[in-house]
Amino acid sequence: MSNKRDYYEVLGLQKNATADDIKKAYRRLAKESHPDLHPNDKSAEARFKEINEANEVLSDPQKRAAYDQFGMDGPPNMGGFSGFGGFGGFDTIFDQLFGGAGARTQRRNAPMRGRDIQLNLRVSFEEAAFGASKSVEFQRAENCDTCRGTGGKDGSEPVTCATCQGTGQVRAGGGFMVTVRTCTTCGGSGQTVKDPCTTCHGSGRVRRKRTANFTIPQGADDGQVFVMSGQGEPGQNKGPNGDLLIVLSVMPHKLFRREGTTLYLEMPISITQAALGASLEVPTLKGKVNHRIPEGTQDGALFRIRGEGIHQLHGSSRGDLVVRVKVEIPKKLSEKQKQLLREFDEASSGKEYEGRKGFLDKVKELFQA
Ligand SMILES: [Zn+2]
Ligand SMILES: [Zn+2]
């Protein structure tokens, strides 16, 4: 049997108090007996804890019903109310008093989702364009098998940290000058392990190397994030696992550049090919195609080769390859080549150069006026 005071009595309430009555009484009493207002007063601290514990039980409909039915000893074989270890303690009271701002908004035993793990995966231009199967290795914190994640030897449960009473924080000073720092005894977790598991040294977690098999879909692009649901770190208190996020980093290509599903290629051609027309051997991502350019092809001219671009991600269509012609003016000519070009020029009437002719005509008009 417990020698504790009745929870209703602690809050100064009757058994038929409403949820609102409990909340109001708790807020008022918790403020009055707050340890910051009574430094060095052990009895105030004890009273503050008592109020908090009473509220923990009475503000929870399930726990209140159990308390009403079984009294302070709790349901049979449950070790009594104060033995649950599940009542939030100081963090809860601070949240309720101060509106839950800041980091400590979650109850310690609330389910918490595991952390996401982000991996950067470098792939070649072609792998992104056509898809590929990849194996990626990564490190992940997992629950320790030896202690089943409790951190205690032989799976024993952790206990509330005596230094911080489970808050994970140590408060110093009084009144309005209160400083809060992370508890060094428990590292902020609010719990300590009496006899630590030797495998995980009490953390309950071990780092494991894992391999994820990942298929890059064709048409994937640089910076794209692929989510592998539930492959992140394990959740706590039955919370869901985090996700594994794979961020693609696509390496640049020597020749091609892409924008969405369109592939771009800049292709240098000779002045003779440009002037006479030519059948060009155009490289694609997977081979070569022939493309005929007409006589008089200009520098910067674009032509399009259908269906030689990038596959649409999760779709059936495929983009085009757009080729930009770059007419290269030859350098380091031999004397013979120079002679031939002079002869070519002498044989020119001027009409061969549309742009130049138009320009010269305009200059002529300007000075004749
Ligand atoms: Zn602590
Ligand atoms: Zn362990």
- Helix-strand category: alpha+beta
Strand order of the largest sheet: 10-11-15-14
CATH level 3 topology of the largest domain: HSP40/DNAj peptide-binding domain
Number of domains: 3
Q: Any low-confidence stretches, pLDDT <50, length ≥5?
A: 82-107
Average pLDDT level = 85
Query: In the CATH hierarchy, what is the class of the largest domain?
Result: Mainly Beta
Strand content bin = 25-35%
* The CATH architecture of the largest domain: Sandwich
Q: What small molecules does the structure contain?
A: zinc ion
| CATH homologous superfamily label of the largest domain | Urease metallochaperone UreE, N-terminal domain
Distance between the termini: 118 Å
Number of contiguous helices:
9
Order of helices and strands: HHHHHEHEEEEEEEEEEHEEEEHH
Radius of gyration: 38 Å
Largest sheet: 4 strands, mixed
Helical amount among residues, as a percent range?
25-40%
Q: Count the beta strands.
A: 15
Shape: elongated
